[in-house]
Amino acid sequence: MGDASVISEIPLIPDGEQAREWAVRELADPVYQAAQPTWFDRAAQAGRDALASLFSPDVAPEWAAVLALVAAILAIAVIVIAILVWGLPCRTSSRSHRSGELFGDIDYRTAEGLRAAADAARRRGDWDTAIVLRFRAAARGLDERELVDLAPGTTSRQFAVRADALLVPGSAEVRRAALVFDDIRYLQRPGTEAGYGLVAAADSALARVVPAASAEPAGVSAP
Question: Phi, psi (5° rounding) for residue 64?
């Protein structure tokens, strides 16, 4: 009986004052605050409402121009705010999604990164690695400058033919470097200091190429 009497004293339905207190406590929960729309959400909704109102049959003709102007101002304001918050969109190009493939291998390093790695290999006497990386640096450098387009599957010989065309007429400097690269990469012949010097000279010559302003990138496609 004692337990029953205690339970009967607990109010199952709160009075008005207590109900308001419970509601205030509940709405103070951070979860509800996070769910509230932000100022940006409200501004965007206002812009959408103003734009939708232009097509309402209840709008008088004399107010249509005013609402159109307000909608345009709101749209411009939203764009300006978006630029201030997130910045200008980055300009993309056809080269922005490179596969990273360089003569059968995937390597996402820049030309400068490849040259630095090649120089480190040169200093420790690893001529095989130094030659391979320096030749790839030459190819990546022209691709970055959009002088030669390295399509997936491009061979070293195809690249060399296009690259030599950028040098003095009749030059075969890059084709000779490609032979050194192929000897190491595919024929497993040991690299030499002289071979590295030949490849490095070709890379340096290509780095000095100044293209004509109207020149289109030379396309290189797989056979």
Answer: -65, -45
112 vs 114: CA distance, rounded Å = 5
Amino acid at 175: R
Domain extent listing, the chain: 18-86, 101-208
Positions of E strands within the chain: 101-102, 105-106, 148-150, 218-220
Question: Quick check: 179 pLDDT over 80?
Answer: yes
Class of CATH domain 101-208 = mainly alpha
Q: How far apart are CA 58 and CA 67, in angstroms?
A: 13
Cα 201 from Cα 150, distance rounded (Å): 21
pTM comes to 0.54
Residue with tokens 């769910």: 35
Work out whether strand 101-102 and strand 105-106 pair parallel, antiparallel, or are unpaired: antiparallel
Is 180:131 a contact under the CB 8 Å cutoff? Answer: yes
Rg of the chain taking only CA atoms, in angstroms: 34
